[in-house]
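Loading example: each entry is read as three labelled lines plus one structure line.
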Amino acid sequence: MGSSPPNRLPDSWAACKTMALTLSARSLVKRYGGVIALRDGSLEIQSGEVVALVGANGSGKSTLSKIITGAVVPNGGHLLLDGTPIQFPNPQAARKRGIAVVYQELSLIPDMTVAENIWLSHEPLRFGIAVNRGAMRDRTQALLDLFAGTISPKLQPDTPVTALPPDERQVVEIVKAISSDPRLIILDEATASLDTNQVNRLFELVKTWKEAGKAVIIITHRMEEIFRVADKATVLRSGESVGTVTIANTDEKTIVGMMIEGAVTPEQIRIPTTALESHVRLDVKRLNGGRLRNVSFTLHDGELLGLGGLQGQGQVDLLLALFGLIPHSGEVILNGKSVHFRHPADAMKQQVAYVPGDRGTEGLLFIRSIFENMQLPSWRKYGIVHRRHAARKDALASAADLQMVYASLDDPVSSLSGGNAQKVVIGKWLLRQPKLLLLGDPTKGVDVGAKGEFYALLRQLTEAGTAILFYSSDDSELLGLCSRVLVFHEGGIRTELSGENLTRANLVAASMGTAHEHD
Amino acid sequence: MTRFTLTPPLIALILAVILFFAGGLINPDFVNPAQATNIVRLAAFLGIIAAGQTLVILSGGEGIDLSIGAVVTMGAILTFRLTGGDNSLIWVGLLASCGAGVVIGLINGIGIALLRIPPLVMTLGMTGVVQGTILVLTQGEMIGATPPLMRQLIAEPLILGIPGVIFIWAMVGIGMWVLLERTTYGKQLFAIGVNRTVARFSGVRVQWIVVLTYILSGLLAGFGGFILLGFAQTVFLQLGNNYLFPSIAAVVVGGTLLSGGKGSYWGTMSGALVLTLIDSLLRAAGLEQAYQLIVFGVILLALIVVYGRQRSLRQ
Amino acid sequence: MNTIRLQRFFSRQSYVISLILLIVVVAVNYSFQNNLFELRIINNNLRTMMPLMILAVGQAIVVIGGGVDLSVGTMVSMINTLLVTWITPESTGGEIALAFALVCGIGILGGALNGFAVAFLRLQPIVTTYATSFIFSGIALLVLPRPGGSLPRDLVTFYRSTPLDLPLGLYVIGVLILFWIVLRSTRYAQYLFAIGSSSDAAYATGVPVRSVRVTTYVWSGLFAALAGIALTLSTGSGQANIGDDMTLNSVVAVVLGGIALRGGGGNAIGAVIGVIILGVIRNIIFFAEVPTWSQTLVNALVILAALAAPGVIRLIRRLIQR
């Protein structure tokens, strides 16, 4: 094996053209509790087309794609496949009709090999019962050969998935999706963890798929990728499809305009730059650990320092290291003292707080009460046998400060809407009155109104002298709120933008790492 | 402010009352204050022994302590042997039984938190070690005696015809409530039971809480063995084994989630009452032991069906 | 490249470490008991291990699928009481065959009950199978309130026989290995490992998670029935709690066999090796003339050390990396 040229497709689907397909989503609606994730999701695609689904974070593009793949059941609207209305009860149903998705959150079985994962539930059989491991291995090899030259020799059909780095797991995900020879392939942020060579190869493949008559929906944060492969772009904004443009007749500016037009931008409350003369709260020198490579910067009291760049470039690792959650080396000087935190409890003693972005897995105990969630980091200060009333009073005051909407402090957090749940995560740290606040994409999945309140809160905090390190995946937040932004790329600080240089164009350019740097 | 809801512990308690009066239908002699006292007395032993199990199950991470049966036996045998029936040496027995429990719990905790051995396997392995230690210590001979004062304080009526063990149980109950609801340990225990990542991100030293929990479980089981001796008066190698699985069942029947993070000791107390009542009822009904086992199994299964459901795969 | 091969080898052949452990304990045993490899001794040893061996294979399948079955021991007891009630010293071959078939059916039914409760009612495996163990235990006591019963002479002799001068136990091991090899080659086995490793990812990929989960308990029920048959032939009589202790031993054997209790990995043959290790350790303690009252402790400490070994290695490795 391995003799076939890298770009030749497996025999099973190079020869015959794929059966034609048309898919149209019309005014799809999806609500989660009180929050509307998708208001009017519409999309048209047919065989031989590559459509990019574009939108800011939280615009509903992932909900729309999940409805198409059967992972989410819509509350309203229509989905037409080959002209007939259809609703998929589960992902298998969609796959049987020729729709395959490359998941962003991985769907691989960690303990199984690459080949076993790719062919799980459609293994080639011998005599109708025995798994034909030879054929499985050969076909896997043929599929992996599509990425030959961009993957390490470690990635073999028999390698256990646990032994693979994230980018190669993503390659396995892609290969798994196409193993069933689908008519429609959805690439949901599939390029996020791939390296440049792998992305190039993937896009060459997308072109061959297109020629073979497949339809491809691509969801990506990287504008440049849209112009490289897509024929059309459907733009979503705040849960609504605001239009579809033909890539050949448009430019980046137009699409960005559609994405942000009329959207609430926090430009009005940019926090003043006067903070820079104040006390240095944090001085980081040559920090390494996780994805970080020699990160150095300083942060002053009352400053809101933004961390920008594409997702997963080391911003979160920086926050984790500073909070003692991942092992790290280098020098961290906090309030004039050199510190090395090995556990969040150490960091908390020095009045550091970290608000994680993923509320569900890192921020909240869903089945416990609002009260307990808010006081979890602070119980110790209420005595060996807690002074419950004092704890309650503090929690009530904090909830009122944050304008939290809830029935009773004893209700479980699971009863709250996304915005209010996020307030609990923030509230539990504000109760400790931190001097250094680390924010890891705190407005993810929070509705517009709550965002506005949050921005006002940030202003209040900085005015009170709190130093804030603010990572956001939403560029407009960084542009609107911060006077200084560190742009991360592959674990290091690519550039620092402030003053006149802090523009969307420069931010995007530095994040993508493609355009020139501006001084 | 407070809203009345039918929580699992309350259901268990109501069930206990219904069962008690249902007993009257089977056997009119069943319903009287003396019988009620007796049932609470029997439930008290199970309840005290199940206290540590409650903590371990609340801690999540598939937490379970299968070694408590052996620890109960160990505690009773140590007290039996060290006091030799001497009232003035009771405190030695109490210290030794609790101390042995702490040591065993510490080993369990280290194995589970530091060596990452699954709790089921670790505590199962420790059961053998504890049983083996008992055999080495006793060389098969149960020498010793129960101090008479222990019987008087624990098993016999103390005040108003109520045996001392019921007061002890009540104190354990209050202690457990304070521990779970009013201390930092308790709140952090619930937190690690729900989600260990969230707990760690909130400054909880998860491994330390896990070790502490198994230590407490050992301590309470050792104490349970000490108390049980006052009732049983005699010791044998299987003494505590009969309390192992009922201790788990009492926790589950009391509405504590087996996956951890949600539950209460007062639920376990109700659960201990329900299990003891079912047991007494089946005896009172004159059922053969075979039917008792089957009925017990079916009831347990039914109770798990009511409380023990896990989340579904579909969203 | 070589490290990948090695990694790949160990991930699939998880029982290799168990096999090394087995060789070590057998060598130690041999130093104390020089006639260990005599046919008669091997036959005796394997005969006592056989029921647990069969049981542990069933337990291994459940554990690989991400569950655990704490009812298998009482199910063995139940099967034992049924067999000695149905089979008398005068039973004909046909009657015996019918009895064997019936108990296998009962084992499958019992397993299906467990499987239904765990997979469809979504109950926790530990407590569910603990609850059903009472039901099986009760039935056993109902069938045979007092120990007793006896089997036809030929049947007992057959169990002690050495066809073609090889111990019967070796044939059983051979059949168990063959069974596993065949099972491992099917698509079903892929599903089994997938649900044990990550039921969410398996569901997303179209694996019928619930049905596969039920079948794991059906297997363990069937193997409990077969273990019950073996145990009955071995003892020749019945007792309502005869197999109860085997539950926990089957779990220990599975772990010793390199099968992770979290599910999704391992090899059922490892469980067979685990049982042999347990038996040989017991042998060593006997022949090493460990004082009688210390035997249980030594045995337990050795088992605990074996269970803790992977964790200790991992901890040391972590400390070194720091």
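Chain C has a mean pLDDT of 86.
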